[in-house]
Every structure is written in C-alpha cells, then in structure tokens.
Amino acid sequence: MPSPQSLSEADRRLVAAWAADCAERVLRLFETDALTDDRPREAITRARAFARGELDAAGEIRRRFVAGRAAHAVTAPAAVAAARAAAQAAGVAHMGAHALGAAAYAAKAAALAAPGQPGATDEERSWQLAQMSPQVQAALQRLPPLGEDSSGPLGAGLLASGALGAHIRAIQAVIGSTPVPNDDR
Description:
The chain has 185 residues and is an all-alpha fold. The protein has one domain. The chain is 62% helix and 0% strand. The protein is built from nine helices and no strands. The protein has helices at residues 9-33, 39-51, 57-63, 66-70, 77-91, 98-113, 120-131, 134-141, 162-175. Helix 1 (9-33) packs parallel to helix 6 (98-113), helix 6 runs antiparallel to helix 7 (120-131) and helix 6 (98-113) crosses helix 9 (162-175). The chain is globular, with a radius of gyration of 15 Å. The termini are close together.
C-alpha cells in the first residue's frame, strides 16, 4: 500500500506545478551564486513537464536527487535553500508531500535573503497560498499533518523541525490539515 504522503499521480501532477512556482520564485538566489550551474533550473523545468504529463514518474524518481546535489555547490545559506526548494519540487513526481517541502525551502530561502525583514517568511507564505488553486489545495489537504506519518518527508525528519516545519504547519493550518479521501490511491 502506498504512503498517504504519495498522493495519486493526478494529484502529484497538480501539486508539481505549484511546487515549481514556489521554487522558481527563489531560484535567482541560487543562480546569483552559481552562474553556470543549471541543475535547479532543470529540476523546476522537469517538475513543470511532469505536471503537464510530458514526463513519467519512474524517470523523474531516478533523477530526483540531481538538484539537491547543487546545494553543495554554493555556500550562501539562501542559495542552498533555493537549490533544495528546486530539489523538493522535482521530488513531487515521486511523492506529493515534497510539494510542501518545496514551499518550506523557498520560504527559508526568502527569509535568509532578507535578514533584516522579519516578515519575509510570512510574505512568502502569503504569495504561495495565493498561487494555490482550489484543486491544489484539495490535493494538499489529502496529505497527513506534519509529523503524524513516518512513511515520507512529512515524518519526524528534517521537514518537521525548525523553520521548515513551522512553515509547513502554517500552510497546513490555513488549508486544513485533515486528510481528504482520494479514491485514486
């Protein structure tokens, strides 16, 4: 039985586009530090292609770690977080919960890029929520609340702690964290 964090393929395609939007918004923070490294941009492009049905999940599962390795090519914390946002967006083809990871890393990147602006995270989250269609919101509502299911990225690991966890919890609070049944699973 698949993890409740997987989502159906149709739902993953929906949330992949939103995750790509979240990651692309902070991509410049990575590209400023690594002018010739196109791995995060390619990951976002692939996430969008997956969302459009042009790529299959199996191929993307094999490539999901490429953008994450780009985080080791930069030293600025905002650039690292931006690369990880792109990697999370690419990971949506494998597991829908990575969409929330993309949003959380994008918010972290935005906050790190604006150290004197305490509202940067809230501003980024507001933008992310405004980009969320009702269909994307419904798909994300199908995910278990952060920390309640250990079978994926929303378990007790990295995404459940610190600023990343706070961001995901805030998004889930706004959209409703009670999983909505999905007949496609």
